[in-house]
Amino acid sequence: MKDLLNVNSEFLTSLGIVDWGYTEESVPASYHQYDNWVKRELHGSLTYLSDHRKDLRSDIKNIYPEFKSALVFLFSYQESKKWMLDNNHHEVAAYSMGFGGEDYHYVLKTRLEKIFDKLKPENASLERFISLDTQPVLERDLALRAGLGWFGKNSMLINQREGSYFIIGSLLMNQKLNLTTGEIDNDHCGQCLACVEACPTNAINPETRTLIASQCISTFTIETFKEAPAPEGFEKSRGEIFGCDICQDVCPWNRKPLIKSIAALSLKPSLEFLKNWFYELPKKDLANLIEAKTNRGLKKFLQGTPFDRPGKIGWLKNLKVKPNQNDS
Q: Strand locations in the chain, DSSP E?
């Protein structure tokens, strides 16, 4: 990985960054595909993608009028993914345990601030707006424009060197930097349909490279907060109860990054209980533990982690034991 102006690559690596790119283009290259996806109602229950924020995503200047450039970073969670694969664990998506078990929004915001603090002394008038996936920005498209990869058939951004086990975080800035803008990468999926064929709920449309949200395991286990029927085919899953990595786990572009990665599940000390929850407790015992808490109590207990999102009803829905799965 190359240095970033006065910020050396070793510092970036210490923050978990595996690649970065630069763009001065504020308009998404794929907005019309996104707009068509919403019009076809394939976003399902994800209303935050179809309300007034949809139009805001048509241009970064709609939320940050001062925009002149963006630095886009890929924050890896390859180590936690490798640990899960080595130990045959698929209960929760790897990103959820990849940042010490903490909510990555808080972790990455702090890391992005550290990068900006190093850039700021070089230009006192430089200002920034931090963009993660809570902002109405098409962050995968922003990374695409910065030259960091292409959209796979599973809709994920795929990087030639680093695969797709990463979270995208960006610094939107009020000035152009003395950097070369990225070029949109070519498609390197070819005729491969591994992700499409592996998805047990048929949630991937390979022609449009989009997901059918109502059929996606991640949508069902993370974004569906009430009692609801599982998408057809969910019984063929690997026991996922929070998120899903199936389409990434079979992607050929994720093989080489994992080979060079060191398997590690490094949880924040106060969050070590998550390992017991998801990898040691039988599902029925975890369900009983959650059942004993109020919704407010559960959310308070899990506050600061990704796992407070589904709420009590959502978690009990996810933990229902399926006939053809082991309860342990």
A: 17-23, 69-76, 128-131, 150-151, 157-158, 166-173, 204-205, 210-211
